[in-house]
């Protein structure tokens, strides 16, 4: 829906239209998309879990974002894009523009950075920086946790998305707590 060329007549490649009319006013799609996004209205859920025996698991949902082509496979089911875990290093989960995430496999890359000894925050930041180099204005964030239970997150700063909120639950904490990182 809402792509060019018309998906019922062509098999792509597809793009979002430059302009879209919304209730009598014309906005660029980016203006419309980001003006509607805030920390309370996205619904992708990413999770990294470290079990009592040390096994690491990760997963992510998909939010059903606008402009998906019928039959399109998003980033959530792609190993390394939406999430990735390895019990010898840690786990990561990503949220954001799935078409960008699929190209860079940020969750896999973050776990590999942790395997090389990088702490989770630095691994998340390096993944975001790597994507920024090629797609400076992408929407996305990554959470990471290593096998010792250290965790971190990073996000790309775009209009309407300057901070990333995530929850942490740990036996070391009295209760689950909300964490916040500033986007770069």
Automatic annotation (TrEMBL):
Which positions are catalytic residues?
Answer: 44
Q: Which Gene3D superfamilies match?
A: (Glycosyl)asparaginase (3.60.20.30)
Q: What InterPro entries does the record point to?
A: Ntn_hydrolases_N, Peptidase_T2
A single Gene Ontology biological process assigned to it is: proteolysis
One GO MF term: N4-(beta-N-acetylglucosaminyl)-L-asparaginase activity
| Residues reported to bind substrate | 72-75, 95-98
The keyword Protease appears for this protein: yes
Q: Compositionally biased, Polar residues: which spans?
A: 1-10
Which keywords does this Swiss-Prot/TrEMBL entry list?
Autocatalytic cleavage, Hydrolase, Protease
A GO cellular component annotation here is: lysosome
Write out the similarity annotation.
Belongs to the Ntn-hydrolase family.
The protein here is known as: N(4)-(Beta-N-acetylglucosaminyl)-L-asparaginase
Organism expressing this protein natively: Turnix velox (Little buttonquail)
Q: What is the lineage of its organism?
A: Eukaryota, Metazoa, Chordata, Craniata, Vertebrata
């Amino acid at each position: 829906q809402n792509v060019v060329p018309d998906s019922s007549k062509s098999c792509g490649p597809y793009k979002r239209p430059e302009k879209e009319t919304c209730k009598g006013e014309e906005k660029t799609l980016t203006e419309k998309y980001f003006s509607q996004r805030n920390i309370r209205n996205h619904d992708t859920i990413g999770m990294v879990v470290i079990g009592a025996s040390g096994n690491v698991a990760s997963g992510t949902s998909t939010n059903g974002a606008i402009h998906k082509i019928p039959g399109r496979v998003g980033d959530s089911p792609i190993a390394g894009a939406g999430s990735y875990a390895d019990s010898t290093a840690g786990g990561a989960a990503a949220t954001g523009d799935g078409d960008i995430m699929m190209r860079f496999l940020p969750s896999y890359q973050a776990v590999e950075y942790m395997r090389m000894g990088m702490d989770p925050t630095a691994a998340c930041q390096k993944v975001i920086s790597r994507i920024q180099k090629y797609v400076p204005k992408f929407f996305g964030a990554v959470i990471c946790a290593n096998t010792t239970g250290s965790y971190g997150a990073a996000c790309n700063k775009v209009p309407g998305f300057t901070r990333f909120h995530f929850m942490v639950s740990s036996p070391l904490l009295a209760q689950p707590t909300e964490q916040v990182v500033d986007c770069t």
